[in-house]
Amino acid sequence: MKITRFLLFLIPCIVSTPMAVAQNCSNPIGIWKTSSGARLDIREINPDTGQIVVSFKSPENLFQDGPHMGTGYLGNASLPATSGSELPASTLSFTVKWPDQSISSWNGYCELKKEVPTITSLWLWVRPDVNKFIEHFNTGHTIFTPYRENRGKEPSPSPGK
Fold first, then answer.
1. Residue 134 to residues 58, 95, 122, 126, 142: CA-CA distances in angstroms?
2. What three-state secondary structure class fits 147?
3. Residue 45's CB: how many other CB atoms inside 10 A?
4. Rounded Cα distance, 59 and 39, in Å
5. Nearest 5°: phi and psi at 71?
6. How do residues 79-96 score in pLDDT, each as one tens digit?
7. Which letter does DSSP use for residue 49 in this model?
8. Which site among 12, 48, 112, 149 is 20 to 30 Å from 92 CA-CA?
9. For 109-144, what is each residue's pLDDT tens digit?
10. Cα separation values, 13 from 1, 6, 20, 49, 97, Å
């Protein structure tokens, strides 16, 4: 009898517990990473305007503090982005202000690449205090993929050790 009561109590708790959903191009909320170690955390999306709130942590060799808050917009995230599809990719743009008063902005799109949601972006970094006009502007591209932590997993031993 006690077990039955316990199970009747436990089942609604299990059923009503929200499951963690990995971010994707249609729902990009979550942490994205780059191969250089930068992390983009898309924290909020306003469903009416598409405005997003983000935090961005640069690779350790740039700004060691942070993460830094930013804002931007999501374009057509409600459309499913599939590899090889004629549907448009999900578009996004966001901007971050750095401690040295420089500003970076990323503009890109999200689509599935080899079954992995991938944000491909062009970035512009504008710096205020430089000696030459051309040094004010730096550009490049960044690719973000979903960040998945290896919690509790130890690296497998090297062969022969």
1. 23, 21, 18, 10, 21
2. coil
3. 18
4. 8
5. -145, 160
6. 555 555 545 678 999 999
7. T
8. 149
9. 999 999 899 999 999 999 998 877 778 889 999 999
10. 19, 11, 15, 34, 42
